[in-house]
C-alpha cells in the first residue's frame, strides 16, 4: 500500500465499501459525539468522513488532534446508514473506520479559521495566505484561474498562434506607468526595467517573420492598487498578428473570450460575436465613459439646443458660455415619490455638482423644477429626443463637454441602479474604437499620446503632416465587459518614418526615439509587416467569472494596497554587501519634525 494514500479525499464511493484504503489530508473539522469521534479529512480534491469509537486505543490520540493538522488515515470503507448519509458531499454515502493514524504535520493554534465562512481581516489573510488558500472559496478561485488559462491557451493554439516567452529583464519604456528598476552589478549606475508589457518584443517577433504570437505574460507596473488592479504585477493574454486589419484582430480574439465566458460563466448570457463596435466619441456622448456597462440600458442624449435662449435661465446662461446639456432618461420615473428626486439631487451635490435637475412627464404635462420653467415646445423636443413617454422622467447634467460627460456617466449609473434597471446574469462585451491619437495636457498645454504610442494613426503620414493633432484618430481599441476594461490594443505603427513623426508631435525628438526605441526602430528599417494585437487581462477575466469584487481574491499571493507582500516580507532592506555589489547607496527621505508647540498650535494660514 502507498505510504500516504491509495485514494484522494474526494474519490471514495459505495463501490469501495469493505476495501482497505489509506488517505491523507488536513483535519478540517472534528465532531465529538461521546463514544464516537468524527473527523472530516480534506485535500484539494474533496472531503471524506473518518470515524473512531472510544474502544480504540487510538481514540485519545485522535481526540487530541488540532484542526489543520496533516494526517494519514488507514482503515476500511464503511457504508453509512441511511439516516447519516450526507447528500452535499460526493463521498457522503461512506466513511472510513480509522485503524491507524499518522501525524504528518502537526498544526499550532490557528491565527484564522479555515473551516466555515467567518470573516477575517485582510492583513491576517495576506500574512497567512497559505491558510487563506485552504478555504474552499479561495481555493476554487485559484483552480478556476488555472482552468481559464488552460482554456485560453488551447483556444489560441487552435487558431495557429504560437506561444513565446519574452524577456523579463529589459529596458525602460514610457508606457504610461512607473517602471520597476533592477540595478546591474556588471554595469554600475545602469538599470534593467521589468516589462510593463512585452510590447516591443512582440512587435519584433512580427518583424522576425513569426505570424501569430501569444503569451500568458507577466507584466510589472508600479501603480496604486484598485479593486480591479493589483499593484506590482499582473498577467495578460498578450497576442500579436502580422498582415492584419483591425477587424482581423477582433475576429481572432472574440471567439476566445466568448468561448471562455460561456465555458466558465455559470450559464450567464454572453454577447455573441461579433461584439458591438462603439466609437470613442460616441461612447463618451452616450455613456459618459470609454468603459460603458451595456447592462445599463440608459443612454445620454445631447439636448443643448433645447435650452439655448430658453426660459430656464440657469442652463440658458451656461449654454451661452459654451456648456452643453446632457439628458438621462428615467423610465417609470413619474411614479416615484418626491423623495426619490430629492435623494438624487442631494447625491449630485455631494458629488460636487450643483444638483440634478429633472422633468417629469405625466398626464400630458411636463412637471418638476425645469418642466415648469421651460417652454412647452422645448419640453416636447426633449421628450422626443430622449424617447420617453408619459410616466417617465428625464434628468439633466449641464457643464463643459468633458465635465458633463464625466458626471453624466456617473449619474447614468446611479439612476440605473436606483431604478433597478441593470441587466442581471449577463456578460455584455463591446469594442471601443477610433480613439484620439493625441490629447492635450490641461496642466502644461502640451500635446501627449492619449493611448498607445506605438499605434498607427488613421491616415498614416498624411494625417500627421496635414491634420490638427487633436483631430487625428488612431487604430486603437479597448475591449470592455460590464463596464470593466479587459484589454487595450492597436494596429501598430510599423514604419520608422511615421513613428519618428508621431513621437515628434508628442515632443520626443528623433534622438530620444532612437535612444528609447532604437532596437525596434532599426528593425522597422529592414522590412516590417503591418501588424496588430491586444492583451486581455487574465486577472480581470477570472475576477469577473468568479464574481469577485476584488482582484486579490483570484491571485494566489497578492500584495496589499500598499504594494507589500506581508507573507514574504517584501519589499525589504538590502544589506551593505548587496548594496556594495550593486554600487548603490540608500538615501532615505527626510522626515520633517515638528515641535510640541507646533503640534499643539498649528499655524493658521494668513
Q: In words, what does this structure look like?
A:
It is a single chain. The protein is an alpha+beta fold and 606 residues long. Helices cover 30% and strands 23% of the residues. The protein is built from 19 helices and 24 strands. An eight-stranded mixed beta sheet has the order 6-9-10-24-23-22-19-12, sandwiched between helices. Strands 1-2-3-5-4 form a five-stranded mixed beta barrel. A five-stranded antiparallel beta sheet has the order 13-14-17-15-16. Strand 20 (438-440) and strand 21 (447-449) form a beta hairpin. Helix 15 (496-505) runs antiparallel to helix 16. It is globular.
List the helices and strands and how they pair.
Blueprint: E1 20-32, E2 36-43, E3 46-53, H1 59-63, E4 70-79, E5 94-105, H2 122-127, H3 129-132, H4 136-158, E6 162-163, E7 181-183, E8 191-193, H5 199-207, E9 212-221, E10 232-242, H6 246-264, E11 269-270, E12 277-279, H7 280-287, E13 301-302, H8 304-307, H9 313-320, E14 324-330, H10 338-350, E15 357-362, E16 365-367, H11 368-371, H12 376-386, E17 393-399, H13 401-419, E18 426-427, E19 429-433, E20 438-440, E21 447-449, H14 460-466, E22 476-481, E23 484-491, H15 496-505, H16 510-524, E24 531-534, H17 538-545, H18 576-581, H19 596-600
Parallel strand pairs: 3-5, 6-9, 11-18, 12-19
Antiparallel strand pairs: 1-2, 1-4, 2-3, 4-5, 7-8, 9-10, 10-24, 13-14, 14-17, 15-16, 15-17, 19-22, 20-21, 22-23, 23-24
Helix pairs in contact: 4-6, 4-17, 5-16, 7-13, 14-15, 15-16
Amino acid at each position: 500500500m502507498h505510504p500516504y494514500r491509495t485514494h484522494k479525499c474526494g474519490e471514495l464511493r459505495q463501490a469501495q465499501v469493505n476495501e482497505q484504503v489509506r488517505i491523507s489530508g488536513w483535519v478540517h473539522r472534528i465532531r465529538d459525539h461521546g463514544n464516537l469521534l468524527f473527523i472530516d479529512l480534506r485535500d484539494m480534491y474533496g472531503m471524506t468522513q473518518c470515524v473512531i469509537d472510544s474502544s480504540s486505543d487510538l481514540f485519545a490520540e485522535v481526540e487530541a488532534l488540532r484542526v489543520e493538522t496533516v494526517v494519514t488515515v488507514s482503515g476500511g470503507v464503511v457504508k453509512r446508514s441511511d439516516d447519516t448519509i450526507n447528500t452535499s458531499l460526493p463521498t457522503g454515502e461512506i466513511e472510513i473506520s480509522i485503524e491507524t493514524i499518522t501525524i504528518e504535520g502537526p498544526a499550532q493554534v490557528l491565527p484564522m479559521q479555515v473551516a466555515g465562512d467567518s470573516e477575517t481581516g485582510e492583513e491576517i489573510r495576506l500574512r497567512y495566505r497559505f491558510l487563506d488558500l485552504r478555504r474552499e472559496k479561495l481555493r476554487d478561485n485559484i483552480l478556476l484561474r488555472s482552468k481559464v488559462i488552460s482554456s485560453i491557451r488551447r483556444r489560441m493554439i487552435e487558431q495557429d498562434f504560437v506561444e513565446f516567452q519574452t524577456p523579463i529583464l529589459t529596458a525602460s519604456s514610457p508606457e504610461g506607468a512607473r517602471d520597476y528598476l533592477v540595478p546591474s552589478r556588471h554595469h554600475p549606475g545602469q538599470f534593467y526595467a521589468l516589462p510593463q508589457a512585452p510590447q516591443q518584443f512582440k512587435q519584433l517577433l512580427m518583424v522576425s517573420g513569426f505570424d501569430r504570437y501569444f503569451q500568458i505574460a507577466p507584466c510589472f507596473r508600479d501603480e496604486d492598487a484598485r479593486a480591479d488592479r493589483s499593484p506590482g504585477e499582473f498577467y495578460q493574454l498578450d497576442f500579436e498578428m502580422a498582415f492584419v486589419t483591425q477587424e482581423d484582430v477582433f475576429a481572432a480574439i472574440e471567439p476566445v473570450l466568448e468561448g471562455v465566458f460561456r465555458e466558465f460563466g455559470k450559464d450567464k448570457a454572453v454577447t455573441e460575436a461579433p461584439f458591438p463596435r462603439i466609437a470613442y466619441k460616441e461612447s463618451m456622448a452616450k455613456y459618459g465613459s470609454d468603459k460603458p456597462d451595456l447592462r445599463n440600458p440608459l443612454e445620454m442624449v445631447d439636448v443643448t439646443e433645447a435650452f439655448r435662449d430658453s426660459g430656464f435661465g440657469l442652463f440658458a446662461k451656461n449654454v451661452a458660455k459654451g456648456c452643453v446639456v446632457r439628458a438621462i432618461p428615467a423610465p417609470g420615473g413619474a411614479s416615484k415619490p418626491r423623495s426619490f428626486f430629492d435623494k438624487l439631487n442631494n447625491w449630485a451635490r455631494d458629488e460636487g455638482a450643483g444638483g440634478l435637475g429633472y422633468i417629469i412627464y405625466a398626464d400630458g404635462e411636463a412637471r418638476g423644477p425645469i418642466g415648469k420653467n421651460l417652454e412647452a415646445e422645448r419640453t416636447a423636443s426633449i421628450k422626443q429626443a430622449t424617447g420617453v413617454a408619459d410616466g417617465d422622467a428625464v434628468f439633466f447634467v449641464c457643464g463643459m463637454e468633458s465635465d458633463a460627460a464625466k458626471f453624466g456617466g456617473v449619474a447614468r449609473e446611479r439612476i440605473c441602479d436606483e431604478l433597478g434597471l441593470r441587466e442581471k446574469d449577463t456578460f455584455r462585451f463591446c469594442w471601443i474604437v477610433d480613439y484620439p491619437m493625441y490629447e492635450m495636457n490641461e496642466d502644461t498645454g502640451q500635446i501627449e499620446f492619449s493611448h498607445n504610442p506605438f499605434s498607427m494613426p488613421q491616415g498614416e503620414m498624411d494625417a500627421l503632416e496635414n491634420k490638427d493633432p487633436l483631430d487625428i484618430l488612431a487604430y486603437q481599441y479597448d475591449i470592455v465587459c460590464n463596464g470593466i476594461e479587459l484589454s487595450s490594443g492597436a494596429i501598430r505603427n510599423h514604419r520608422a518614418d511615421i513613428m519618428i513623426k508621431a513621437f515628434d508631435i508628442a515632443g520626443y525628438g528623433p534622438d530620444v526615439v532612437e535612444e528609447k526605441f532604437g532596437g525596434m526602430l532599426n528593425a522597422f528599417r529592414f522590412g516590417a509587416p503591418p501588424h496588430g494585437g491586444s492583451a486581455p487581462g487574465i486577472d480581470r477575466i477570472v475576477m469577473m467569472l468568479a464574481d469577485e469584487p476584488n482582484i486579490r481574491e483570484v491571485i494566489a499571493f497578492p500584495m496589499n494596497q500598499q504594494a507589500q507582500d506581508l507573507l514574504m516580507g517584501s519589499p525589504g532592506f538590502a544589506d551593505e554587501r548587496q548594496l556594495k555589489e550593486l554600487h548603490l547607496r540608500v538615501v532615505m527621505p527626510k522626515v520633517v519634525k515638528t515641535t510640541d508647540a507646533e503640534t499643539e498650535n498649528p499655524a493658521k494660514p494668513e
